[in-house]
Every structure is written in structure tokens, then in C-alpha cells.
Amino acid sequence: MPNPLLELKKYGQSVWYDNLNRELLASGTLQRMVDEDGVTGGTSNPSIFEKAVGGGDYYDADIRRLSGESRELAEIYDDLTITDVQRSADVFRTAYDDTAGADGYASLEVSPELAYDTEGTIGAARKLFAALNRPNAMIKIPGTQEGLPAVEQCLAEGININITLLFGVENYEQVAWAYISALEKRLAEGKPVDRIASVASFFVSRVDTLIDEQLNTKTESATSETEREYLTSLFGKAAVANAKLAYAKYKEIFSSLCWKVLEEAGARPQRCLWASTSTKNPEYRDVMYVEQLIGADTVNTLPQSSLDAFREHGAVAPTLESDVEGALETIRELEEAGIDFRAATDELQIQGVKLFAESFEKANATIRQKREALLSSPQVVRAPGAA
Questions:
Q1: Residue 347 contacts by C-beta under 8 Å, 6 or more apart in sequence?
Q2: CA-to-CA distance for 282 and 103, rounded, in angstroms?
């Protein structure tokens, strides 16, 4: 049977892996994903890194070495994450070269503690991009209001940017226009625009998680069975509807006259990336956020569980542009049911920044603990990951 993951390419969708880490690289697993599943990119974030560092000894040798060089904790964190993303970018380099820079990227996130600090974000993005020293590296910047000018400035300087933690269509629209504005600045200055890459990472499943919680509260207080059935019918529909409307906005923006000028100069559109696509509710189909969001010029970034599930039983069809009117109706019905959708997506972004900041702190705490343990124990030379 054909591998459904490979079939996605026929519809213009790339598969990225949502869990870059040292073990994946050391074991050769990432390369096998590239060869067998058609994975052409990958992402990391503080949550992923925190679990990776605490989950084994793959980072111990570097932590010991860097600690012996009297590096500060922040320097050790940066060194470890930069190394992971550099090596991942090297694995994806063939995809980058084969597509002339359209695909094949590995992403590294600026500290989430800078999510509301424009100048701090710009400085960190410059530093990380220079340290990565890979044409197919991307820097992740949250799409907060303070992050937007940082996104535009960094893109104008030629830094590839992955705008993360997007939940609302209005916020996505701001991000898309920031990309266009940055390229217009480059073009006006006589700078090339053909190798500037960006993705807008739209988080999916978390939308259903929050909206379903709100619907459940309303269902419990419903005054009639009819109202209860109506509210129940809306469960699990918000996230896909929201993503479809974001893609419709993408199609509108990247067919505008101002975009056509940039396109003629060699610019590529900023692709929508579907993030957080693992199914959180066990009552829902485990690949629903892959199957229902297949479309051209998009990326779906999958964790291991979703990658395996879609390889095994995913159905492939061009679904992203189907029933957009139905998506509009879903959002309208949610609003009529008393769901403030804009407030919900704003809350999700705040929660996302907070969760990443907490993971960033935990990752640094794990590094600190490992540093202390390693420096207080004799060095034992063994292969990484060995028992």
C-alpha cells in the first residue's frame, strides 16, 4: 500500500516533524523519516527541548564540556539547541536544495521570555540565526503584538522566520501582511526576495480543547434537550473551521496586486503551517487534524504519534478548501451559542506563551541539575544513550 505521508506531496503539502532532538539525530531516525516518509522539515520549541534533555543522557557530554568551560546556563541552553537545529538542518539540506529553498527547514525558537519584548526578540533572532549559520534555518517568533514588528524587521534583514503561537484569523492576517511589508522593504532597497522563507504556524487542536470546554459548560446549564443537542453538535468543529478560514484569508492575501509585484520579483508566499495537530480528545479520529487540512502550499508538522497513525491509516484528499461556507457557519453558530471566538483565540495565545515560558524554565532547571551532577561525579566515557 502507498504511504499516505508520501501522498500528501501530490496536493502540495509538506510534512515536517514536530519533535527535533538529539536522540532522533544520533539514532538515524530523522534520516529514515526523510527517506521513508518524505519528511522535509522540522520544528523544536522549549517544551520539546525540556523533555529531550530530561529524557536521557544524549546531552550529558556537551553539558559536561560546556560546564567545564565555565559557560553560563543560558549559553549552555543555546549551544545545545543550536547544535540540534544545525544537525537537523543538515539532514533537510537535500530537500532545501532540490526545491531551491522552498522547503527543507529546521526551526529554533527565541526565548519565550521575550514574547512581549520587541527589541529583545530582534536581538535574539539575529544572534541565533547567525550562530546557526544555515540557509535552511528558521527562527521562531511568537505572533504576539510585540512580536509582529520583530517579525517584520527580521524578515527585512533576511532572517527566515517561523511565526508561532497563532490561533486567530485576525492575528494570522497581521502576520501575513508583516511578511509582505518586509519583502516590499527589501525590494525597495534593491535586495533579493527570492530566498526569504517564512511560515505562519497556526495551532489547531488547542482551539478545540478550549472551545469544547466552553461548550461543555454551556451544555451542563442548558435548559432544554434541544439546546443541549445543538451545543453538542458543535463539539470538535471549531479548530478545523478556524484553520480553513485562515487558509481562505491566505488565498486572498497572496493573490492581491501588491503580492503579485513581489511574486514577479521571485518571492514565495508565506506558507500556512498547521501545528498542534495531534488529537487531544480520544473520542475524535486520531488523524482528523491531518486529513481535514490537506491543501497546496501548506505544511503539517506532526509529532510521532500522528506521523505513525497517518502512515498507518490516513486518508488523503484535497480537503482544505472544501466547504468553506460550512466553516463560516460553524464559527457563526459558536458565536450565537455565546462563544466569544476572538477572546478564546487571544486567551490561547497567552496560555501558549505561558506554557512555553514554563517549559523554558524547566529545561534550564534540568540543565542546571545535570551540570551539578556531572561535575560532582567522575567522567565515564561511553556511547551516548548507552545503558
A1: 210
A2: 32
How far is it, in rounded angstroms, from Cα 275 to Cα 61?
32
The whole-number pLDDT of residue 46 equals 86
Task: Report pLDDT digits (tens) over 136-153.
Answer: 999 999 999 999 999 999
Active-site residue among 127, 140, 218, 260?
Answer: 140
- What phi-psi label fits residue 101: left (phi over 0), alpha (psi between -120 and 50 degrees) or beta? left
3-state secondary structure 24-86: HHHCCHHHHHHHHHCEEEECCCHHHHHHHHHCCCCCHHHHHHHHHCCCCHHHHHHHHHHHHHH
Whole-number Å distance between alpha carbons of 215 and 228: 10
Share of the chain above pLDDT 90, in %: 88
Burial degree of 358 (CB within 10 A; 0-12, 13-18, 19+): middle
Structural domain boundaries in the chain = 4-375
354 part of the active site: no
Q: Amino acid letter at 150?
A: A
Domain 4-375 has CATH 3.20.20.70: yes
Contact (CB, 8 A) for 163 and 175: yes
**Amino acid 384: pLDDT:** 53
So what's the pLDDT on residue 385? Answer: 53
